[in-house]
Amino acid sequence: MEIKLRPIGVVHSPFKTNEDIETERFADPQGFDSVEGDLEIFEEYEAGLKDTEGFSHLIIIFAFHESEGYRLHTKPFLDDQLRGLFSTRSPNRPNPIGLTVVKVVERKGNRLRVKGIDMIEGTPILEIKPYTPRDQKPSIKFGWLEDKMKKK
Amino acid sequence: MEIKLRPIGVVHSPFKTNEDIETERFADPQGFDSVEGDLEIFEEYEAGLKDTEGFSHLIIIFAFHESEGYRLHTKPFLDDQLRGLFSTRSPNRPNPIGLTVVKVVERKGNRLRVKGIDMIEGTPILEIKPYTPRDQKPSIKFGWLEDKMKKK
Predict the structure, then answer these.
(1) pLDDT, tens only, A25-76
(2) Which domains does chain A have, with CATH numbers?
(3) Which residues from chain B sit within 8 angstroms of residue A53, using beta carbons?
(4) Single pTM value for the model
(5) Minimum CA–CA partner of B129 in chain A
(6) How many CA atoms lie within 13 A of A60 on its CB side?
(7) What gap in Å lies between CA B146 and CA B148, rounded to an integer?
(8) How far apart are CA A100 and CA A124, in angstroms?
(9) What whole-number distance in Å separates Cα of residue A89 and Cα of residue A77?
């Protein structure tokens, strides 16, 4: 069984390469919240953006289009130990798709100006969903990452 | 450009048909939080589940495998007006992929017992990611859905 997806748009980002992203991550893992960029949705899908501006946050699913292969145990950027791949947000995955929750700044036609971009210029956008109360989990445990963030 | 994905596992759910899901939704939109099910990850990917049990919540990306076609303006189940598709969580989308945040109950080998299932039996799982502090947005606006939830 194979599921075929086609991009519905493309990310315009101040980050031009994966190295730009890594630099930001090391400087401030929370720093992406202030990074602005544009989501250009192809015109054939523009009508579907109606009402998105009523939501403060959107979930963007995108392709890690520069991903190559994967390992089931991997060392996350914040850690020095091998972790199970599905407990990390590594771009190198069996299905190389990523997910970021962005804040809507404004919509102009088929372009959404958003904050919270951690994708590189040219990233193919696969899906946009509204972030709703069911996506809010106020009280969470976050495993190995918890220790790492406390130590910072 | 086409992105090809392969299922990494399959959902085992008390919901056997889409009608079962709709019945639950009408009875209590928040009711899914207590619905338990299993995520069976294919054995070849089991090693990647290491460390997931340290996280209270996981993001599951799955295929809406019974989805057929889509309309860019659609009437959500809670609403009586046409809304832009990307402001809804309708299963009928250009790229028919869904997303649910589930709560981890326990892991036994390649099976994760979780709460918060709103998929039907046999749903193909495409991706598992840890739910991290960056996915928490405590203060949100949620557009047309906000009015509908207040009225209930």
Answers:
(1) 777 777 788 899 999 999 999 999 999 999 999 999 999 999 999 999 999 8
(2) 9-151 (2.40.30.70)
(3) 143
(4) 0.95
(5) A86
(6) 31
(7) 5
(8) 13
(9) 10
Which tokens sit at B74? 């659609």
Asked if residues B62 and B126 have their Cβ atoms less than 8 Å apart, the reply is yes
Q: What is the DSSP string of A32-72?
A: GGG-EEEEEE-GGGGGGGTTGGGBSEEEEEEE-TT-----S
Contact A47, B73 (CB under 8 A): yes
CA distance A68 to A73: 15
Neighbours of A74 (CB within 10 A): 17
**Which two tokens mark A80?**
């020095």
Question: DSSP of A4-35, one letter per residue?
Answer: EE--SEEEE-S--SHHHHHHHHHH-TTGGGG-
Element (H, E) at B148: helix B143-151
pLDDT digits (tens), chain B, 152 positions: 899 999 999 999 999 998 898 888 877 777 788 899 999 999 999 999 999 999 999 999 999 999 999 999 999 877 889 999 999 999 999 999 999 999 999 999 999 999 999 999 999 999 999 999 999 999 999 999 987 876 65
Mutate to test the interface with B, among A71, A81, A86, A106 (most CBs of B within 10 A): A86
A 129-148 residues inside an 8 A Cβ radius of B: 129-146
Q: Is B69 on the interface with A (CB under 8 A)?
A: no
Q: Is B110 exposed, middle or buried (0-12, 13-18, 19+ CB in 10 A)?
A: middle
Distance between CA atoms of residues A44 and A8, nearest Å: 9
Model-level ipTM above the cut of 0.90: yes
